[in-house]
């Protein structure tokens, strides 16, 4: 029992830190990075440039997944997870010290993009390893509930990140926040990384990885074996995660930027709405984990994606500056459904691959799917708003859900689908 608690805390603590780091960048990109780090043009152009730097991390994540997956499948889960956390945390911490465009010109966005790349590279090895740490230590009948623990790091990290930005907005004037206040969440990440490292260094290796090493030598190049012997599973896993990424980043990064820049809602009001709505993500993850162990993870994922299709049709109606309740309801429903498309992934995605390439497979599929569903979501949404209105953003969500259904229903190996 003590061992299981330690596993759950380790898988949750690390991903909370990682997602806190990732989300403070997303929040800062929506609020301050445009005017601080990019040439003065229009507010929309600056916001899109900030979102482009945000998307850069998604391009780095598959590279991180390949590198960390290689070592995670060859030398072990624990040491690889420690390295990914240190890289992610170090990159985040250094952002706090960056000079702005007004200080050093084009070098400022270049340095910002380099550190953003480091964030994404580190996160590329994080989720898959944390999911394996939980699932491969789970007792019989509990794999989905153990596997949901890394996903709970998402709402916890979001609450910590946006909660801190909200408090700073209340304590500081706009001038103080723009001048130096935005740097404080990046500085605070150092403390969280130390806590995460302390928890993970106390962990041992997972039983399934030890058994796999005893049965046969590790794959010489896990990624090569993955892409030659497990192509269908990799494609299915990649498509299956598209919907959850699109739901999250449109409901958080895009919604924050659009509501404050385009329709003039107060930053503190939108952050408060998002903090309340994110509780529905946590609820969805917990319910989905329980339901997955009772029935099947694929059944829950299919239900979440199918429900996202009609959600997209009404999504745009929630953005009304005169009706903040409507914004809360549409974001709460989006994030609740994200819980159903995200919570079961720890069990479902890792089960697609044998232990010898499981770190590489789950990390690669998760992060390539992140490019399709998450990297371009805020940029594409901002473009759709300017050309077709906010209602088109909802149709983008519906399309992402259809892509995930293709992976879940038609491409996934038969033994990963519901009876």
Give a verbal description of the structure.
By secondary structure, the chain is mostly helical. The protein is 81% helix and 0% strand. It contains 21 helices and no strands. It has helices spanning 2-37, 43-74, 77-95, 101-104, 107-124, 126-135, 143-147, 149-171, 174-179, 184-200, 207-215, 222-229, 231-240, 242-262, 267-294, 297-314, 324-342, 345-351, 358-375, 377-388, 391-411. The longest helix has 36 residues, at 2-37. It starts with a helix and ends in an 8-residue tail after the last helix.
Main beta-sheet strand count, sense and barrel state: none
Helix/strand class: mainly alpha
Mean pLDDT: 87
Number of helices: 21
Question: Count the strands?
Answer: 0
Q: What's the alpha carbon Rg, rounded to whole Å? A: 20 Å
Instruction: Return the string of H and E elements.
Output: HHHHHHHHHHHHHHHHHHHHH
Which residues sit in consecutive blocks of at least 5 with pLDDT less than 50?
Answer: none
Helix content: over 70%
Morphology: globular
Between the first and last Cα atoms, what is the distance in angstroms? 32 Å
The percent range for strand residues is under 5%
């Amino acid at each position: 029992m003590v061992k299981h608690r330690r596993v759950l805390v380790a898988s949750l603590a690390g991903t909370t830190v990682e997602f806190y780091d990732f989300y403070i960048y997303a929040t800062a990109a929506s609020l301050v990075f445009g005017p601080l780090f990019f040439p003065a043009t229009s507010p929309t152009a600056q916001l899109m440039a900030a979102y482009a730097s945000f998307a850069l991390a998604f391009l780095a994540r598959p590279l991180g997944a390949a590198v960390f997956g290689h070592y995670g499948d060859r030398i072990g889960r624990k040491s690889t997870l420690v390295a990914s956390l240190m890289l992610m945390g170090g990159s985040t911490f250094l952002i706090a010290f960056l000079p702005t465009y007004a200080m050093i010109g084009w070098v400022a966005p270049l340095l910002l993009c380099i550190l953003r790349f480091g964030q994404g590279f580190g996160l590329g090895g994080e989720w898959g390893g944390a999911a394996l740490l939980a699932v491969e230590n789970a007792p019989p009948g509990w794999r989905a509930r153990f596997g949901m623990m890394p996903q709970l790091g998402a709402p916890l990290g979001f609450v910590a990140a946006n909660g801190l930005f909200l408090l700073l907005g209340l304590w500081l004037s706009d001038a103080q926040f723009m001048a130096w206040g935005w740097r404080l969440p990046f500085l605070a990440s150092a403390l969280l990384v130390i806590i995460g490292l302390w928890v993970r260094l106390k962990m041992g290796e997972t039983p399934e990885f030890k058994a796999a090493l005893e049965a046969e030598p590790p794959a010489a190049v896990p990624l090569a074996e993955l892409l030659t012997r497990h192509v269908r599973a990799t494609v299915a896993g990649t498509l299956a995660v598209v919907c959850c990424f699109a739901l999250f980043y449109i409901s958080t990064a895009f919604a924050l930027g659009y509501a404050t820049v385009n329709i003039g809602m107060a930053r503190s009001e939108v952050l408060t709405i998002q903090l309340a709505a994110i509780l529905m993500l946590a609820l969805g993850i917990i319910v989905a984990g329980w339901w997955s162990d009772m029935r099947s993870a694929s059944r829950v994922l299919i239900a979440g994606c199918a429900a996202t299709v009609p959600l997209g049709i009404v999504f745009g109606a929630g953005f009304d500056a005169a009706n903040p309740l409507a914004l809360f309801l549409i974001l709460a429903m989006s994030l609740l459904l994200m819980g159903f498309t995200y919570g079961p992934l720890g069990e479902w995605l890792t089960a697609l691959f044998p232990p010898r390439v499981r770190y590489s497979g789950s990390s690669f599929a998760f992060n390539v799917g992140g490019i399709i569903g998450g990297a371009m979501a805020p940029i594409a949404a901002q473009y759709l708003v300017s050309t077709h209105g906010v209602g088109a953003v909802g149709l983008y969500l519906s399309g992402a859900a259809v892509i995930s259904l293709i992976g879940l229903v038609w491409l996934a190996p038969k033994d990963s689908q519901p009876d």
